[in-house]
Write a structure and sequence with these properties.
Elements: H1 3-8, H2 21-30, E1 39-42, H3 51-60, E2 68-73, H4 78-86, E3 91-94, H5 102-115
Parallel strand pairs: 1-2, 2-3
Helix pairs in contact: 2-3
């Protein structure tokens, strides 16, 4: 492959991270529709705005509601999983990743598949 060929190839956007829920919300508000993320890996325990608050806002917005959102958290509380599912997550991953947890591994594998599409 020549240098010219590599310049014509479209690569996925790099991953970005935000310090807290408010920063993540600001990023979504400022991005043009064509640059929306394909997937969001969201922690529940963020400062300023927790993951549930941000997820609710994502799901209420017509431009963002179809973004795949995976929860990655230390919480293994069934109430957190139920609320996250009610809010339309794509997967719930408990950290540290528990290799003996089928639901965490299924969510992790689905997330990896979506990232490689």
């Amino acid at each position: 492959m020549s240098y010219k060929d590599t310049q014509q190839t479209e690569y996925p956007a790099p991953a970005t991270n935000r310090k807290n829920g408010e920063d993540a919300l600001y990023m979504l508000q400022e991005e043009p529709a064509a640059k929306m993320p394909d997937l969001i890996l969201l922690d529940l325990n963020m400062p300023k705005m927790n993951g549930f608050e941000l997820l609710s806002l994502i799901r209420e917005n017509d431009h963002w509601k179809d973004i795949k959102v995976f929860i990655q958290t230390t919480s293994d509380q069934s109430e957190d999983k139920t609320l996250a599912q009610t809010l339309g997550i794509s997967g719930f991953i408990t950290k540290p990743l528990k290799l003996d947890s089928l639901s965490s591994m299924d969510a992790f594998n689905l997330m990896m598949d979506l990232m490689n599409m």
